[in-house]
Amino acid sequence: GQNIDQPTEMTATEGAIVQINCTYQTSGFNGLFWYQQHAGEAPTFLSYNVLDGLEEKGRFSSFLSRSKGYSYLLLKELQMKDSASYLCAVRERGFKTIFGAGTRLFVKA
Amino acid sequence: GAVVSQHPSRVICKSGTSVKIECRSLDFQATTMFWYRQFPKKSLMLMATSNEGSKATYEQGVEKDKFLINHASLTLSTLTVTSAHPEDSSFYICSARAPGTFSTDTQYFGPGTRLTVL
User: Fold this and answer.
1) Cα Rg for chain B, rounded, in angstroms?
2) Which residues of A touch B97 (CB under 8 A)?
3) Closest chain A residue by Cα to residue B110
4) pLDDT tens digits along A1-50
5) 3-class DSSP assignment, residue B34
6) What angle is formed at CA B22 by the lines to CA B17 and CA B26, rounded to 5 degrees?
7) Measured between alpha carbons, how far is A102 from A88 in angstroms, rounded to an integer?
8) Interface of A with B (CB under 8 A)
9) Chain B environment of A40 (Cβ under 8 Å)
10) CB A7 within 8 A of CB A20
11) Closest CA to A35 of B105, B37, B1, B9
C-alpha cells in the first residue's frame, strides 16, 4: 500500500537548523518532492530528489535514500516566515503524486 | 514560471446546490490536471486526474457522479460539486502538468478554492 510518514509538528528557534524527516512506502517511485504550505494557501515547490544524495538550494537542503525509503528536509538559519507546513510527496509511476500529512513547523523567537 | 489560476477563490453555497470550480493554466498548455481536496490541518488528497479530451480517472472512494470533472481544452479543467452538502466543505486545489517536461517540479498548483456549504 501507500504510506508516507512525517512528524505532525515541530518547534525550532529562529536562527537554528531543523530537520524534517519523511519515510515512504509507495507502489512506485518517480521522485520525491518537498513543498511548503502556509495556511489557506496552495503548496509551493521547495525541492525535488530522484537520485540518492543531498540537494542543496540556499537555506534549504533535501536528502534522499531510495533503498531506505527515507528523505529529510533541512532548513538552516531559520526565520519566522519559515513557520508553515512542510509536505513530503512521492510521485509514483506517471505523474500521480501522493502527499504526506505534512509537518507543521513553528519557529519561535 | 508557469501560472495556474482557480476561480472562484471562495464560494459559499446552500446545501443541495451545485458549485463549479475552474482551473486554468495561463501561460502553458496542460495535458493533465489534478484535483485535490484538503481538510483543515490535513494534507492534500488526490481526488482525480483529468486528461484533456478524455474521462477523468478518479481515486478510490471519490464519487465520480458527485464530483464531475471536465477537461475540455488544454488550458481549462472544471470541477463541479453536485448537490453539495456541508461535509463537502473543504479547500480544493488543482494542479497542472506542462507537457514535455519530466524532471523537477512539473506540477504547478493553483491558489485553491475554499468551499463552504451551509
Assistant:
1) 14
2) 95
3) A42
4) 678 999 999 999 999 999 999 999 988 898 999 999 998 888 888 999 99
5) strand
6) 170
7) 7
8) 31, 33, 40-45, 48, 50, 87, 95-102, 104
9) 91, 112, 114
10) yes
11) B105
